Amino acid sequence: xxxxxxxxxxxxxxxxxxxxxxxxxxxxxxxxxxxxxxxxxxxxxxxxxxxxxxxxxxxxxxxxxxxxxxxxxxxxxxxxxxxxxxxxxxxxxxxxxxxxxxxxxxxxxxxxxxxxxxxxxxxxxxxxxxxxxxxxxxxxxxxxxxxxxxxxxxxxxxxxxxxxxxxxxxxxxxxxxxxxxxxxxxxxxxxxxxxxxxxxxxxxxxxxxxxxxxxxxxxxxxxxxxxxxxxxxxxxxxxxxxxxxxxxxxxxxxxxxxxxxxxxxxxxxxxxxxxxxxxxxxxxxxxxxxxxxxxxxxxxxxxxxxxxxxxxxxxxxxxxxxxxxxxxxxxxxxxxxxxxxxxxxxxxxxxxxxxxxxxxxxxxxxxxxxxxxxxxxxxxxxxxxxxxxxxxxxxxxxxxxxxxxxxxxxxxxxxxxxxxxxxxxxxxxxxxxxxxxxxxxxxxxxxxxxxxxxxxxxxxxxxxxxxxxxxxxxxxxxxxxxx
Length: 483
Hints:
Elements: H1 5-19, H2 24-43, H3 46-50, E1 56-63, E2 66-71, H4 74-100, H5 106-124, H6 129-147, H7 153-185, H8 202-215, H9 227-230, H10 236-245, H11 247-263, H12 265-271, H13 277-294, H14 298-318, H15 322-353, H16 364-367, H17 369-383, H18 389-403, H19 407-433, H20 438-443, H21 450-468, H22 471-482
Antiparallel strand pairs: 1-2
Helix pairs in contact: 1-2, 1-5, 2-4, 4-5, 4-10, 4-15, 4-21, 4-22, 5-6, 6-7, 7-8, 8-11, 10-15, 11-14, 11-15, 13-14, 13-19, 14-15, 14-19, 15-17, 15-18, 15-21, 15-22, 17-19, 17-21, 18-19, 18-21
Protein backbone atom coordinates (compact mmCIF):
# COMPACT_ATOMS: atom_id res chain seq x y z
CA UNK A 1 0.00 0.00 0.00
CA UNK A 2 1.21 3.51 -0.80
CA UNK A 3 2.18 5.61 2.24
CA UNK A 4 0.21 8.46 0.64
CA UNK A 5 -2.94 6.79 1.97
CA UNK A 6 -1.77 7.61 5.50
CA UNK A 7 -2.16 11.29 4.64
CA UNK A 8 -5.28 10.89 2.52
CA UNK A 9 -7.32 9.03 5.16
CA UNK A 10 -7.27 11.75 7.86
CA UNK A 11 -7.78 14.46 5.20
CA UNK A 12 -10.93 12.75 3.95
CA UNK A 13 -11.91 12.16 7.56
CA UNK A 14 -11.58 15.87 8.31
CA UNK A 15 -13.95 16.70 5.45
CA UNK A 16 -16.50 14.13 6.62
CA UNK A 17 -16.26 15.38 10.22
CA UNK A 18 -17.01 18.90 9.01
CA UNK A 19 -19.96 17.62 6.94
CA UNK A 20 -21.49 15.77 9.91
CA UNK A 21 -20.90 18.51 12.49
CA UNK A 22 -24.62 19.08 13.08
CA UNK A 23 -25.04 15.48 14.25
CA UNK A 24 -22.59 14.91 17.14
CA UNK A 25 -23.03 11.13 17.38
CA UNK A 26 -22.37 10.68 13.67
CA UNK A 27 -19.49 13.18 13.76
CA UNK A 28 -17.76 11.26 16.53
CA UNK A 29 -18.42 7.93 14.81
CA UNK A 30 -16.67 9.32 11.74
CA UNK A 31 -13.76 10.49 13.94
CA UNK A 32 -13.30 7.08 15.52
CA UNK A 33 -13.72 5.25 12.20
CA UNK A 34 -11.12 7.48 10.55
CA UNK A 35 -8.67 6.88 13.39
CA UNK A 36 -9.15 3.10 13.19
CA UNK A 37 -8.77 3.14 9.40
CA UNK A 38 -5.56 5.18 9.67
CA UNK A 39 -4.06 2.66 12.09
CA UNK A 40 -4.99 -0.09 9.63
CA UNK A 41 -3.25 1.72 6.76
CA UNK A 42 -0.12 2.35 8.85
CA UNK A 43 -0.04 -1.21 10.19
CA UNK A 44 -0.24 -2.61 6.66
CA UNK A 45 3.19 -1.08 5.96
CA UNK A 46 4.91 -2.83 8.89
CA UNK A 47 5.68 -6.19 7.20
CA UNK A 48 7.44 -4.50 4.27
CA UNK A 49 9.52 -2.27 6.54
CA UNK A 50 10.47 -5.15 8.81
CA UNK A 51 11.54 -7.09 5.69
CA UNK A 52 13.89 -4.25 4.76
CA UNK A 53 11.76 -2.53 2.11
CA UNK A 54 11.18 1.23 1.96
CA UNK A 55 7.64 1.88 0.61
CA UNK A 56 7.60 5.25 -1.15
CA UNK A 57 5.42 7.68 -3.09
CA UNK A 58 5.93 11.01 -4.83
CA UNK A 59 3.25 13.55 -3.91
CA UNK A 60 4.40 16.37 -6.19
CA UNK A 61 7.52 17.47 -8.09
CA UNK A 62 8.32 21.08 -7.17
CA UNK A 63 11.37 21.48 -9.41
CA UNK A 64 13.44 18.97 -11.36
CA UNK A 65 15.08 16.80 -8.73
CA UNK A 66 13.13 18.41 -5.86
CA UNK A 67 9.92 16.62 -4.92
CA UNK A 68 7.54 16.19 -2.03
CA UNK A 69 8.30 12.53 -1.50
CA UNK A 70 7.30 9.95 1.09
CA UNK A 71 9.46 7.02 2.16
CA UNK A 72 8.76 4.70 5.07
CA UNK A 73 11.91 3.81 7.04
CA UNK A 74 12.05 2.21 10.53
CA UNK A 75 11.98 5.41 12.62
CA UNK A 76 9.08 6.85 10.64
CA UNK A 77 7.25 3.53 10.94
CA UNK A 78 7.65 3.60 14.71
CA UNK A 79 6.45 7.22 14.96
CA UNK A 80 3.46 6.61 12.69
CA UNK A 81 2.38 3.56 14.70
CA UNK A 82 2.47 5.56 17.93
CA UNK A 83 0.60 8.54 16.49
CA UNK A 84 -2.10 6.57 14.68
CA UNK A 85 -2.65 4.19 17.58
CA UNK A 86 -2.93 6.92 20.18
CA UNK A 87 -5.30 8.94 17.96
CA UNK A 88 -7.91 6.24 18.52
CA UNK A 89 -7.52 6.41 22.30
CA UNK A 90 -7.38 10.22 22.29
CA UNK A 91 -10.58 10.36 20.24
CA UNK A 92 -12.39 8.20 22.79
CA UNK A 93 -11.06 10.42 25.56
CA UNK A 94 -12.05 13.58 23.68
CA UNK A 95 -15.66 12.46 23.42
CA UNK A 96 -15.93 12.14 27.19
CA UNK A 97 -13.95 15.32 27.89
CA UNK A 98 -15.58 17.63 25.34
CA UNK A 99 -19.08 16.53 26.30
CA UNK A 100 -18.34 16.36 30.03
CA UNK A 101 -17.12 19.96 30.01
CA UNK A 102 -19.69 21.21 27.45
CA UNK A 103 -16.90 22.63 25.28
CA UNK A 104 -17.79 24.94 22.40
CA UNK A 105 -16.72 24.49 18.74
CA UNK A 106 -16.42 20.73 19.00
CA UNK A 107 -16.67 20.16 15.25
CA UNK A 108 -13.76 22.52 14.60
CA UNK A 109 -11.84 20.67 17.31
CA UNK A 110 -12.27 17.26 15.66
CA UNK A 111 -11.54 18.64 12.18
CA UNK A 112 -8.28 20.25 13.31
CA UNK A 113 -7.33 17.06 15.13
CA UNK A 114 -7.69 15.08 11.89
CA UNK A 115 -5.71 17.68 9.93
CA UNK A 116 -2.97 17.53 12.56
CA UNK A 117 -2.77 13.75 12.17
CA UNK A 118 -2.49 14.10 8.39
CA UNK A 119 0.45 16.48 8.90
CA UNK A 120 1.95 14.09 11.45
CA UNK A 121 1.86 11.24 8.94
CA UNK A 122 3.61 13.52 6.45
CA UNK A 123 6.36 14.22 8.98
CA UNK A 124 6.71 10.53 9.86
CA UNK A 125 6.99 9.37 6.25
CA UNK A 126 8.96 12.33 4.85
CA UNK A 127 11.45 11.07 2.28
CA UNK A 128 13.58 14.22 2.25
CA UNK A 129 14.18 17.43 4.15
CA UNK A 130 11.82 19.49 1.99
CA UNK A 131 8.90 17.16 2.68
CA UNK A 132 9.75 17.11 6.38
CA UNK A 133 9.81 20.92 6.49
CA UNK A 134 6.49 21.34 4.65
CA UNK A 135 4.56 18.92 6.88
CA UNK A 136 6.35 20.20 10.00
CA UNK A 137 4.97 23.68 9.25
CA UNK A 138 1.51 22.33 8.41
CA UNK A 139 1.48 20.57 11.78
CA UNK A 140 2.18 23.88 13.54
CA UNK A 141 -0.58 25.67 11.63
CA UNK A 142 -3.18 22.91 12.08
CA UNK A 143 -2.64 22.76 15.86
CA UNK A 144 -2.79 26.52 16.40
CA UNK A 145 -6.65 26.57 16.41
CA UNK A 146 -6.54 23.77 18.99
CA UNK A 147 -4.25 25.75 21.29
CA UNK A 148 -6.53 28.81 21.05
CA UNK A 149 -9.70 26.69 21.22
CA UNK A 150 -11.40 28.55 24.08
CA UNK A 151 -10.90 31.97 22.47
CA UNK A 152 -10.12 33.53 25.86
CA UNK A 153 -7.39 36.19 26.12
CA UNK A 154 -4.99 33.79 27.83
CA UNK A 155 -5.59 31.22 25.05
CA UNK A 156 -4.88 33.83 22.36
CA UNK A 157 -1.71 34.90 24.18
CA UNK A 158 -0.59 31.27 24.56
CA UNK A 159 -1.30 30.63 20.89
CA UNK A 160 0.73 33.68 19.90
CA UNK A 161 3.73 32.35 21.85
CA UNK A 162 3.18 28.88 20.38
CA UNK A 163 3.07 30.10 16.81
CA UNK A 164 5.79 32.71 17.20
CA UNK A 165 8.45 30.39 18.61
CA UNK A 166 7.71 27.40 16.37
CA UNK A 167 7.46 29.38 13.12
CA UNK A 168 10.34 31.66 14.12
CA UNK A 169 12.78 28.82 14.84
CA UNK A 170 11.82 26.78 11.79
CA UNK A 171 12.19 29.67 9.34
CA UNK A 172 15.10 31.39 11.08
CA UNK A 173 17.20 28.28 11.74
CA UNK A 174 15.82 25.09 10.17
CA UNK A 175 15.16 26.53 6.72
CA UNK A 176 18.58 28.19 6.74
CA UNK A 177 20.17 24.85 7.63
CA UNK A 178 18.32 23.14 4.78
CA UNK A 179 19.43 25.72 2.21
CA UNK A 180 23.01 25.43 3.45
CA UNK A 181 22.81 21.64 3.23
CA UNK A 182 21.53 21.85 -0.34
CA UNK A 183 24.32 24.25 -1.28
CA UNK A 184 27.00 21.90 0.09
CA UNK A 185 25.61 18.55 -1.04
CA UNK A 186 23.26 19.24 -3.96
CA UNK A 187 20.57 17.08 -2.34
CA UNK A 188 17.95 17.13 0.43
CA UNK A 189 17.36 13.38 0.38
CA UNK A 190 17.72 11.29 3.52
CA UNK A 191 20.33 8.57 3.25
CA UNK A 192 21.68 5.92 5.66
CA UNK A 193 25.02 7.17 6.96
CA UNK A 194 24.13 10.78 6.18
CA UNK A 195 24.75 13.06 3.21
CA UNK A 196 27.26 15.48 4.74
CA UNK A 197 30.31 13.24 5.10
CA UNK A 198 33.29 14.91 3.46
CA UNK A 199 31.24 17.99 2.55
CA UNK A 200 31.99 20.29 5.50
CA UNK A 201 34.70 21.05 8.06
CA UNK A 202 34.32 20.19 11.72
CA UNK A 203 33.41 23.76 12.68
CA UNK A 204 30.95 24.12 9.80
CA UNK A 205 29.32 20.80 10.66
CA UNK A 206 28.93 21.85 14.31
CA UNK A 207 27.33 25.15 13.31
CA UNK A 208 25.01 23.43 10.87
CA UNK A 209 24.02 20.92 13.55
CA UNK A 210 23.13 23.82 15.87
CA UNK A 211 20.86 25.31 13.19
CA UNK A 212 18.99 22.02 12.94
CA UNK A 213 18.81 21.29 16.67
CA UNK A 214 17.47 24.73 17.61
CA UNK A 215 15.54 25.09 14.36
CA UNK A 216 13.49 22.03 15.28
CA UNK A 217 11.72 24.03 17.98
CA UNK A 218 9.20 21.28 18.63
CA UNK A 219 11.98 19.36 20.41
CA UNK A 220 11.84 22.14 23.06
CA UNK A 221 15.57 22.49 23.72
CA UNK A 222 16.13 25.47 25.98
CA UNK A 223 15.90 28.40 25.40
CA UNK A 224 13.27 27.65 22.71
CA UNK A 225 10.91 25.74 24.98
CA UNK A 226 8.41 28.34 26.20
CA UNK A 227 5.85 27.51 23.51
CA UNK A 228 5.15 24.22 25.26
CA UNK A 229 4.02 25.44 28.71
CA UNK A 230 2.31 28.40 26.98
CA UNK A 231 0.16 25.94 25.02
CA UNK A 232 -1.22 24.42 28.22
CA UNK A 233 -4.15 26.86 28.00
CA UNK A 234 -5.65 24.39 25.53
CA UNK A 235 -8.17 21.68 26.53
CA UNK A 236 -6.57 18.54 27.96
CA UNK A 237 -7.09 16.37 24.83
CA UNK A 238 -5.07 19.00 22.96
CA UNK A 239 -2.37 18.90 25.63
CA UNK A 240 -2.26 15.14 25.14
CA UNK A 241 -1.95 15.67 21.36
CA UNK A 242 0.86 18.18 21.84
CA UNK A 243 2.78 16.09 24.37
CA UNK A 244 2.26 12.52 23.26
CA UNK A 245 0.73 12.02 19.84
CA UNK A 246 2.02 14.63 17.42
CA UNK A 247 3.83 17.88 18.05
CA UNK A 248 6.64 17.18 20.49
CA UNK A 249 7.14 13.72 19.04
CA UNK A 250 7.49 15.31 15.60
CA UNK A 251 10.24 17.43 17.16
CA UNK A 252 12.37 14.69 18.68
CA UNK A 253 11.62 12.39 15.73
CA UNK A 254 13.04 15.07 13.41
CA UNK A 255 16.11 15.46 15.63
CA UNK A 256 16.90 11.75 15.47
CA UNK A 257 16.14 11.55 11.76
CA UNK A 258 18.43 14.48 10.92
CA UNK A 259 21.28 13.07 13.02
CA UNK A 260 20.99 9.61 11.47
CA UNK A 261 20.10 10.43 7.85
CA UNK A 262 21.61 13.90 7.24
CA UNK A 263 24.73 14.11 9.41
CA UNK A 264 25.39 10.41 9.95
CA UNK A 265 26.12 8.96 13.38
CA UNK A 266 29.62 7.74 12.48
CA UNK A 267 30.47 11.00 10.72
CA UNK A 268 29.51 13.13 13.74
CA UNK A 269 31.34 10.81 16.14
CA UNK A 270 34.51 10.97 14.05
CA UNK A 271 34.43 14.76 13.69
CA UNK A 272 33.38 15.49 17.32
CA UNK A 273 31.06 18.16 15.92
CA UNK A 274 28.25 17.16 18.26
CA UNK A 275 30.28 17.21 21.48
CA UNK A 276 28.32 20.24 22.70
CA UNK A 277 24.89 18.65 22.23
CA UNK A 278 24.88 16.35 25.31
CA UNK A 279 25.56 19.42 27.47
CA UNK A 280 22.69 21.39 25.89
CA UNK A 281 20.35 18.43 26.32
CA UNK A 282 21.55 17.78 29.87
CA UNK A 283 21.01 21.42 30.84
CA UNK A 284 17.45 21.27 29.51
CA UNK A 285 16.75 17.99 31.32
CA UNK A 286 17.87 19.29 34.71
CA UNK A 287 16.54 22.85 34.51
CA UNK A 288 13.10 21.78 33.27
CA UNK A 289 12.93 19.19 36.07
CA UNK A 290 13.68 21.90 38.63
CA UNK A 291 10.90 24.10 37.23
CA UNK A 292 8.50 21.13 37.32
CA UNK A 293 9.46 20.48 40.94
CA UNK A 294 8.38 24.01 41.90
CA UNK A 295 5.16 24.13 39.84
CA UNK A 296 1.86 23.75 41.70
CA UNK A 297 -0.33 23.78 38.60
CA UNK A 298 -0.63 20.16 37.49
CA UNK A 299 -0.60 20.75 33.73
CA UNK A 300 2.36 23.14 34.06
CA UNK A 301 4.25 20.49 36.03
CA UNK A 302 3.50 17.93 33.34
CA UNK A 303 4.51 20.42 30.62
CA UNK A 304 7.96 21.02 32.11
CA UNK A 305 8.29 17.29 32.68
CA UNK A 306 7.79 16.92 28.93
CA UNK A 307 10.46 19.53 28.18
CA UNK A 308 12.83 17.48 30.33
CA UNK A 309 11.84 14.08 28.92
CA UNK A 310 12.18 15.24 25.30
CA UNK A 311 15.81 16.07 25.90
CA UNK A 312 16.40 12.46 26.95
CA UNK A 313 15.82 11.65 23.27
CA UNK A 314 18.18 14.44 22.17
CA UNK A 315 20.78 13.31 24.72
CA UNK A 316 20.54 9.71 23.54
CA UNK A 317 20.89 10.69 19.89
CA UNK A 318 23.87 12.90 20.78
CA UNK A 319 25.75 9.95 22.30
CA UNK A 320 26.19 8.69 18.72
CA UNK A 321 26.23 4.93 19.28
CA UNK A 322 23.86 2.23 17.98
CA UNK A 323 22.58 1.44 21.47
CA UNK A 324 21.89 5.13 22.18
CA UNK A 325 19.92 5.45 18.94
CA UNK A 326 17.85 2.45 20.03
CA UNK A 327 17.30 4.19 23.39
CA UNK A 328 16.24 7.41 21.67
CA UNK A 329 13.67 5.60 19.50
CA UNK A 330 12.32 3.59 22.43
CA UNK A 331 11.98 6.71 24.58
CA UNK A 332 9.78 8.30 21.91
CA UNK A 333 7.43 5.33 22.39
CA UNK A 334 7.69 5.08 26.18
CA UNK A 335 7.19 8.78 26.77
CA UNK A 336 4.18 8.84 24.44
CA UNK A 337 2.32 6.21 26.44
CA UNK A 338 3.34 7.45 29.89
CA UNK A 339 2.76 11.15 29.29
CA UNK A 340 -0.59 10.76 27.54
CA UNK A 341 -1.72 8.72 30.55
CA UNK A 342 -0.69 11.55 32.89
CA UNK A 343 -2.52 14.18 30.84
CA UNK A 344 -5.60 11.98 30.57
CA UNK A 345 -5.59 11.72 34.37
CA UNK A 346 -5.16 15.48 34.75
CA UNK A 347 -8.16 16.04 32.46
CA UNK A 348 -10.21 13.48 34.38
CA UNK A 349 -9.45 15.32 37.64
CA UNK A 350 -10.51 18.62 36.10
CA UNK A 351 -13.69 17.15 34.61
CA UNK A 352 -14.84 15.32 37.75
CA UNK A 353 -13.42 17.45 40.58
CA UNK A 354 -12.56 20.80 38.92
CA UNK A 355 -9.09 20.67 40.47
CA UNK A 356 -6.07 22.08 38.65
CA UNK A 357 -3.40 22.46 41.37
CA UNK A 358 -1.18 19.79 42.89
CA UNK A 359 -1.87 21.24 46.35
CA UNK A 360 -5.59 20.46 45.90
CA UNK A 361 -5.15 16.73 45.33
CA UNK A 362 -4.89 15.44 48.91
CA UNK A 363 -7.10 12.38 49.26
CA UNK A 364 -8.44 12.53 45.72
CA UNK A 365 -7.34 8.95 45.12
CA UNK A 366 -10.11 7.81 47.47
CA UNK A 367 -12.69 9.45 45.22
CA UNK A 368 -10.94 8.65 41.93
CA UNK A 369 -8.92 5.47 42.49
CA UNK A 370 -9.03 4.43 38.84
CA UNK A 371 -7.76 7.78 37.63
CA UNK A 372 -5.01 8.12 40.22
CA UNK A 373 -3.98 4.51 39.67
CA UNK A 374 -3.45 5.32 36.00
CA UNK A 375 -1.59 8.49 37.00
CA UNK A 376 0.69 6.43 39.25
CA UNK A 377 1.56 4.08 36.37
CA UNK A 378 2.38 7.00 34.08
CA UNK A 379 4.45 8.67 36.80
CA UNK A 380 6.46 5.54 37.59
CA UNK A 381 7.17 5.07 33.90
CA UNK A 382 8.43 8.66 33.61
CA UNK A 383 10.69 8.09 36.62
CA UNK A 384 12.03 4.99 34.87
CA UNK A 385 11.04 2.15 37.16
CA UNK A 386 10.15 -1.42 36.09
CA UNK A 387 7.80 -2.90 35.04
CA UNK A 388 6.94 0.18 32.97
CA UNK A 389 8.05 1.25 29.50
CA UNK A 390 10.18 4.18 30.68
CA UNK A 391 12.59 1.77 32.34
CA UNK A 392 13.51 0.15 29.00
CA UNK A 393 14.40 3.35 27.19
CA UNK A 394 16.29 4.83 30.15
CA UNK A 395 18.21 1.58 30.54
CA UNK A 396 19.42 1.74 26.92
CA UNK A 397 20.36 5.41 27.25
CA UNK A 398 22.21 4.81 30.51
CA UNK A 399 24.05 1.84 28.99
CA UNK A 400 25.14 4.03 26.10
CA UNK A 401 26.31 6.82 28.40
CA UNK A 402 28.33 4.42 30.53
CA UNK A 403 29.73 2.60 27.51
CA UNK A 404 31.05 5.82 25.97
CA UNK A 405 32.44 7.14 29.25
CA UNK A 406 30.07 10.14 29.19
CA UNK A 407 30.10 10.82 32.93
CA UNK A 408 28.15 14.05 32.50
CA UNK A 409 25.34 12.17 30.71
CA UNK A 410 25.31 9.50 33.43
CA UNK A 411 25.12 12.18 36.14
CA UNK A 412 22.29 13.94 34.30
CA UNK A 413 20.28 10.73 34.01
CA UNK A 414 20.73 9.87 37.69
CA UNK A 415 19.98 13.42 38.91
CA UNK A 416 16.95 13.86 36.68
CA UNK A 417 15.57 10.49 37.77
CA UNK A 418 15.71 11.68 41.38
CA UNK A 419 14.05 14.97 40.37
CA UNK A 420 11.35 13.05 38.48
CA UNK A 421 10.63 11.10 41.63
CA UNK A 422 10.61 14.37 43.58
CA UNK A 423 7.84 15.95 41.53
CA UNK A 424 5.74 12.84 40.79
CA UNK A 425 5.76 10.66 43.91
CA UNK A 426 4.40 13.34 46.30
CA UNK A 427 1.32 13.64 44.06
CA UNK A 428 0.67 9.90 44.25
CA UNK A 429 1.34 9.78 47.99
CA UNK A 430 -0.90 12.77 48.69
CA UNK A 431 -3.72 11.38 46.55
CA UNK A 432 -3.87 8.02 48.31
CA UNK A 433 -2.46 8.52 51.80
CA UNK A 434 -3.40 12.04 52.88
CA UNK A 435 -6.80 12.98 54.26
CA UNK A 436 -8.99 14.78 51.70
CA UNK A 437 -9.66 18.45 52.13
CA UNK A 438 -13.12 19.45 53.28
CA UNK A 439 -14.20 20.72 49.87
CA UNK A 440 -13.48 17.32 48.34
CA UNK A 441 -16.13 15.76 50.60
CA UNK A 442 -18.47 18.62 49.94
CA UNK A 443 -18.17 18.36 46.17
CA UNK A 444 -19.29 14.73 46.15
CA UNK A 445 -17.59 13.85 42.87
CA UNK A 446 -16.58 10.41 41.70
CA UNK A 447 -14.71 9.23 38.61
CA UNK A 448 -14.82 11.06 35.28
CA UNK A 449 -17.15 9.90 32.44
CA UNK A 450 -16.66 6.38 31.10
CA UNK A 451 -14.90 7.30 27.80
CA UNK A 452 -12.21 9.10 29.82
CA UNK A 453 -11.75 6.07 32.08
CA UNK A 454 -11.54 3.71 29.10
CA UNK A 455 -8.89 5.86 27.41
CA UNK A 456 -6.64 6.32 30.42
CA UNK A 457 -6.93 2.63 31.32
CA UNK A 458 -5.88 1.68 27.79
CA UNK A 459 -2.78 3.92 27.80
CA UNK A 460 -1.80 2.85 31.32
CA UNK A 461 -2.09 -0.79 30.23
CA UNK A 462 -0.02 0.04 27.15
CA UNK A 463 2.70 1.49 29.36
CA UNK A 464 2.98 -1.85 31.14
CA UNK A 465 2.57 -3.91 27.96
CA UNK A 466 5.44 -2.13 26.21
CA UNK A 467 7.76 -3.21 29.02
CA UNK A 468 6.85 -6.90 28.65
CA UNK A 469 6.32 -6.96 24.87
CA UNK A 470 8.68 -4.43 23.27
CA UNK A 471 9.36 -6.64 20.25
CA UNK A 472 7.91 -4.56 17.39
CA UNK A 473 9.19 -1.19 18.61
CA UNK A 474 12.56 -2.64 19.63
CA UNK A 475 12.87 -4.31 16.24
CA UNK A 476 12.21 -1.04 14.40
CA UNK A 477 14.64 0.81 16.69
CA UNK A 478 17.36 -1.77 16.04
CA UNK A 479 16.80 -1.55 12.28
CA UNK A 480 17.18 2.23 12.55
CA UNK A 481 20.46 1.89 14.47
CA UNK A 482 21.74 -0.75 12.07
CA UNK A 483 20.82 1.23 9.00
